[in-house]
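Customer escalation, tier 2.

The customer says the design service returned an amino acid string that "doesn't look like it belongs to this structure." They asked us to rerun it and document both sides in this ticket. The original structure tokens are below, unchanged.
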């Protein structure tokens, strides 16, 4: 990682780290940070083995792509809270559990951990951090959920036994058809292969596009996630740069057309009037 151009062999720029002043390759640093975020790390060690310091938040945020920044901030916030605060399993909205006041104390003991998220209305269990399991205690639910997840992740006939809906978390089994699934409970469209929601944006592609940031991870370089994100991010950045230029060019052409029209239209009307007078033999 350290040693500049000779260290990474990619000819990329190098810069010193604020903690130990050792120079590192920017591209290698970005890959290292992304890998740490994917592992759920909030406190990230300096990549230089001789340094025992943690990288500061500013350095980490500056060298992460947008998607990893969101994850890093989430893990950072999660590391700073106590056990009385947990994120919603669906939308990650943080809820603080209080037996009185903020969360009313139910009359039934088994329902005291029942939480309804104020942001997405998802109902979940604060104690085991799972979707709400009516009539089943946390231990029994976790045991059954573990068996279900194990069965769902097993591959039979070239596909998973089941895939979890990214919104309501229920497991859905595909018997036939394509990877495009629609949850019968919440109507969410998602990909059966990777489990992600279907997203699309005009000019930036959709889940079936190989080079789109919304594309399925299995459609392009599935075994090389860092390179896939780099390529797709570069394509997205290129489109973001081109889009304003196209808009400006369109506005410029429109303005030119208006200016030309202001001169040409009166002349056209005058010529048309002259031809009409010539045909009727009327004098000017």
């Amino acid at each position: 990682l350290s040693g500049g151009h000779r260290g990474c062999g990619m000819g990329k720029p190098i810069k010193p780290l604020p903690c130990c002043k050792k120079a590192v390759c920017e591209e290698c640093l970005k890959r290292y940070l992304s890998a740490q975020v994917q592992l759920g790390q909030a406190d990230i060690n300096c990549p230089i083995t001789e340094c025992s310091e943690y990288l500061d938040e500013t350095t980490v945020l500056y060298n992460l792509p947008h998607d990893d920044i969101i994850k890093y901030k989430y893990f950072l916030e999660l590391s700073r809270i106590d056990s009385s605060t947990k994120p919603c399993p669906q939308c990650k909205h943080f809820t603080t559990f209080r037996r009185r006041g903020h969360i009313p104390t139910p009359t039934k003991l088994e329902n005291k951990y029942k939480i309804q998220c104020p942001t997405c209305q998802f109902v979940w269990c604060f104690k085991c951090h799972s979707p709400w399991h009516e009539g089943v205690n946390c231990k029994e639910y976790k045991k059954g959920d573990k068996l279900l997840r194990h069965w769902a992740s097993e591959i039979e006939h070239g596909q998973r036994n089941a895939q979890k809906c990214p919104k309501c978390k229920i497991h859905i089994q595909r018997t036939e058809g394509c990877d495009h699934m629609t949850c019968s409970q919440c109507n969410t469209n998602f990909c059966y292969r990777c489990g992600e929601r279907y997203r699309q944006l005009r000019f930036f592609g959709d889940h079936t596009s190989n080079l789109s940031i919304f594309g399925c991870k299995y459609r392009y370089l599935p075994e090389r996630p860092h390179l896939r994100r780099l390529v797709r991010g570069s394509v997205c950045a290129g489109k973001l740069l081109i889009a304003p230029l196209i808009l400006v060019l369109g506005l410029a052409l429109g303005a030119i057309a208006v200016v030309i029209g202001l001169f040409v239209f009166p002349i056209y009307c005058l010529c048309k009037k002259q031809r009409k007078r010539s045909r009727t033999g009327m004098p000017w």
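Tier 2 assessment: The sequence is consistent with the input. The CA atoms of residues 161 and 175 lie 9 Å apart. The chain is about 40% helix and 10% strand. Sent an explanation to the customer and offered a walkthrough call.
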